[in-house]
TrEMBL record:
<dbReference type="GO" id="GO:0019354">
    <property type="term" value="P:siroheme biosynthetic process"/>
</dbReference>
<dbReference type="InterPro" id="IPR006366">
    <property type="entry name" value="CobA/CysG_C"/>
</dbReference>
<keyword id="KW-0489">Methyltransferase</keyword>
<dbReference type="InterPro" id="IPR000878">
    <property type="entry name" value="4pyrrol_Mease"/>
</dbReference>
<comment type="pathway">
    <text>Cofactor biosynthesis; adenosylcobalamin biosynthesis; precorrin-2 from uroporphyrinogen III: step 1/1.</text>
</comment>
<dbReference type="GO" id="GO:0009236">
    <property type="term" value="P:cobalamin biosynthetic process"/>
</dbReference>
<comment type="pathway">
    <text>Porphyrin-containing compound metabolism; siroheme biosynthesis; precorrin-2 from uroporphyrinogen III: step 1/1.</text>
</comment>
<protein>
    <recommendedName>
        <fullName>uroporphyrinogen-III C-methyltransferase</fullName>
        <ecNumber>2.1.1.107</ecNumber>
    </recommendedName>
</protein>
<keyword id="KW-0627">Porphyrin biosynthesis</keyword>
<dbReference type="GO" id="GO:0032259">
    <property type="term" value="P:methylation"/>
</dbReference>
<dbReference type="GO" id="GO:0004851">
    <property type="term" value="F:uroporphyrin-III C-methyltransferase activity"/>
</dbReference>
<keyword id="KW-0169">Cobalamin biosynthesis</keyword>
<dbReference type="InterPro" id="IPR014776">
    <property type="entry name" value="4pyrrole_Mease_sub2"/>
</dbReference>
<dbReference type="InterPro" id="IPR050161">
    <property type="entry name" value="Siro_Cobalamin_biosynth"/>
</dbReference>
<dbReference type="InterPro" id="IPR014777">
    <property type="entry name" value="4pyrrole_Mease_sub1"/>
</dbReference>
<keyword id="KW-0808">Transferase</keyword>
<dbReference type="InterPro" id="IPR035996">
    <property type="entry name" value="4pyrrol_Methylase_sf"/>
</dbReference>
Amino acid sequence: MEKTLPSPGKLWLVGAGPGDPDLLTLRAARLLEGADLVVHDGLVGEGVLALIPAHVERISVAKQRSRHTMKQDLINELLVRETLAGKQVVRLKGGDPFIFGRGGEELDAARESGVAVEVVPGITAAAGCAAQAGLPLTHREDASAVSFVAGQCKDLTDQDWSGLAGHGRTLVIYMGLATATAIADKLIADGVSPDLPVAVIERGTTADARVLRTLLTDLGDLVAREKVQSPSLIIVGKVAARADALDCLGAPGVAAQIRDFI
């Protein structure tokens, strides 16, 4: 008699959203309940992690600047190995898997290994944090285009950022705290007005969120003097001046605040 092969496993690349567990999609929540293993990032909110059933195995592969719990190639190997072993594996990633989440790399690794894989989108930080801050990324009077940029990019000074910010545009910078001064200098050197409004959203969508608003020329100094911590998002453009419409931040139990340096 032939041996019965084990049921095939499946890998799910799931977006956890920007932090607030209420922003997790229904599909993501259902997958967490049915998972055998959840491999999660450090940016996944504690409220989201609390939704994982106690019997489900968890592995943290948190990354921090210049220090990784597990390198990306080893994460890829882990995901493939556990899925091929027949497990339902949820790779839980902060925000959206395909927006600065390395979801593309993990998808490629799964496909190359013959692993069944599916992507479940999540609310990216730009949408979630801007919404909480009352900051429209597009506006008929101010911006008809939005660009997402990684602030920890290599060879920053060699890149042309002249078309990313300015009239009619909003620039959203992920992972930009450590290079905030260089980013401001680069944008100004490429022709962006030093007086363009900027908003820095710290710990967006959480109860202790903080919104700091200033001008582009002051961005680096603001990050330093206010001791802004990760995770934070930088939004450059005229729409940042609208971040003072923060009725949502005054909701009961929400300690979020806005500080204005314009």
